[in-house]
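To: structure subgroup
Subject: Chain for Friday's discussion

All,

I'm putting the inputs and outputs inline so they're searchable in the archive.
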Amino acid sequence: KGTYGAPGGLVHAGSHVTGTFIALLAVMPSPSVILTVLVAEFVVHYHIDWVKEQVVRRCDIREGARFWNAIGVDQLLHNLTYLAILVYVTA
């Protein structure tokens, strides 16, 4: 996830988009809404992970409270992304 454009980070973000696609099928928004959400989620998810990895590497925080704080911020941002998707789809 820390090397921009590397397959691992792209596949990881893609796996989350796959789950979102399945969830969206359950609520059946229009195809344009589905496509917009999936593209946006991919871009946002990928960059949240990439930035977190850059911070962890550049600040050399692979353990301890600062590391777990970075993980916590990462997870908060991912969950806020899902909240934004929910608001967008139901608006």
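Points worth raising on Friday:
The longest helix spans residues 31-58.
Residues 27 and 79 are 19 Å apart (CA to CA).

D.
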